[in-house]
Design a protein that fits this description.
The chain is mainly alpha-helical. It is built from 12 helices and no strands. It folds into 2 domains: 60 residues, Arc Repressor Mutant, subunit A (Orthogonal Bundle), CATH 1.10.10.60; 156 residues, Tetracycline Repressor, domain 2 (Orthogonal Bundle), CATH 1.10.357. The chain is 77% helix and 0% strand.
Length: 225
């Protein structure tokens, strides 16, 4: 029994996928807290339960690990978006669900926003080296483009909306608020981190996006004009 147990533990220790995933998770925490320049490989290794030798074996160097963490962060949010099955919903409901998801994902994963801030400081020089990032993000825009096409065909959405521009607007409405909550709260003397304030923000974002998409004639008809 002891021999089998030792064998099982050894197999776990040699599991490349598990080791790599642990290093990526530890790297995500370290880079979010300290940025690329301040991150320390020894802290990442310790947090992952591994060692520096294994880290270098799987990722090569700190910059390569940083890029891998970025790629994984994008892969995670895109995978979660795919689980929404937006194309199974009515167009307006699909857009509403995407706005809600994006907002709630940002709140649940503040490290994602922090890493985006860090990479923008570096002018995306690391993401530009990625061979996967475009393929990772393209399906979302294709899905949104199809939602817009269906909404326009049903006479609910205006025509000619650029799917990429719309997604950038959806992301920006939540990203700016959450990334600047402390400064905005101080400047306007209003605690924007409170649950009530966040609920109001989500409602405001949803109304803005759907109001923009709504076909003008349909809106005027609803208003009795």
């Amino acid at each position: 029994m002891r021999s089998a147990s030792r064998s099982g533990n050894g197999a776990k220790k040699r599991d490349p996928a598990r080791i790599r995933a642990q290093i990526l998770r530890a790297g995500s925490v370290e880079f979010a807290r300290h940025g690329l320049a301040g991150a320390r490989v020894d802290r990442i290794a310790a947090r992952s339960g591994s060692n520096k030798r294994m880290l270098y074996y799987y990722f090569g160097d700190k910059k390569s690990l940083y890029l891998a963490v970025l790629e994984q962060a994008y892969a995670d949010i895109r995978a979660a978006e795919q689980e929404l099955a937006l194309l199974d919903m009515a167009p307006a409901e699909g857009v509403k669900r995407l706005v809600e998801f994006t907002w709630n994902y940002y709140i649940a994963h503040p490290e994602f926003l922090t890493m985006l801030n860090t990479e923008n400081l570096h002018r995306a020089q690391h993401l530009k080296r990625s061979r996967n990032i475009r393929a990772t993000n393209s399906p979302l825009i294709a899905t949104l483009r199809e939602i817009l096409r269906r909404g326009a065909a049903r006479g609910e959405f205006r025509r000619g909306v650029d799917a990429l521009q719309l997604y950038i607007s959806i992301a920006a409405l939540g990203y700016f608020y959450l990334s600047n909550t402390y400064t905005l709260s101080a400047v306007f003397s209003r605690d924007l981190s409170l649950p009530k304030a966040r609920a109001e923000r989500l409602a405001h974002m949803t109304d803005m996006v759907l109001g923009y998409l709504e076909r003008r004639g349909r809106r005027m008809q609803a208003e009795g004009k």
